[in-house]
Amino acid sequence: MDDADDKGSKDNKAEKIVYYSLANGVVTVDDEATDATWDLKFSQDGIVLNSGDDFAGSVKGAFLAELPYDDIATGGVNWAVGGASVSAIPAWYTFGEGFSLVSLGHVYIVRTAEGYPVKMEIVDYYHTPVDTQVSGWYTIQWAYL
User: What global pTM score does this model have?
Assistant: First the structure.
């Protein structure tokens, strides 16, 4: 596994759900309940982990009480279990001007389906091409620990 930082945007409009594997990037999923190839499910303003009673994966997550991204190294983590009704990536945003979503800059630790720990921060929720702003376009910063 490469330990270098990797940044990426996930296009995710209201009518589209994006399944993402931290090892392989965007993946195609026919049945989210039985498919263990995805780690994160991005939808309009929610991020769900592939685990729990509703999904086939074994992804785990933990919120690290507002530690700076660059200060996080591997260590003891109390893992939370995600699922359809319990997201391990809760309350990642606040409302800004005009009810825009603004990232709180929280850092989460995710243990992938392959068992690799990853630190992850949601950097932005918007893509701003010329003269317009598109919502549901996640930019995440993440790195293997």
Answer: 0.77
